[in-house]
Write a structure and sequence with these properties.
110 residues, mainly alpha, 4 helices, flat
Length: 110
């Protein structure tokens, strides 16, 4: 069941995707420097990549953890790019994802 308590496989899954995100970020940074697009655009691309990666998660734990990263990146992007609807949306989604992640832990701990 995808709502089971996070275990070693979930942690390994998260670590695997965290490495993928870092590698993707490094690749995007290299392209940014080569193409001379702004770092703000690069941040937006990284945030979008994090959303894409959430669709690849096998468990709700991993999905929520990566979604938190996505929310954080998009909120920062919304501030620096002055895209306030993005900032507002991800500022609302962040605590929702935190609460859902806590539920996953509490539901299995008790």
């Amino acid at each position: 069941d995808s709502d089971e308590m996070p275990h070693r496989d979930d942690q390994n899954d998260f670590k695997k995707w965290a490495v993928a995100v870092v590698a993707l970020y490094a690749a995007i940074l290299a392209v940014t420097l080569a193409a001379m697009i702004s770092w703000v655009d690069c941040l937006g691309v990284c945030a979008g990549a994090a959303v894409l990666i959430t669709f690849l998660m096998r468990t709700m734990y991993s999905l929520r953890a990566v979604a938190l990263l996505s929310n954080l990146l998009f909120a920062i992007y919304g501030v620096v790019a002055h895209v306030y609807p993005v900032l507002i949306l991800h500022s609302i989604l962040f605590p929702i994802n935190v609460a859902k992640l806590r539920e996953l832990y509490r539901g299995r701990a008790g």
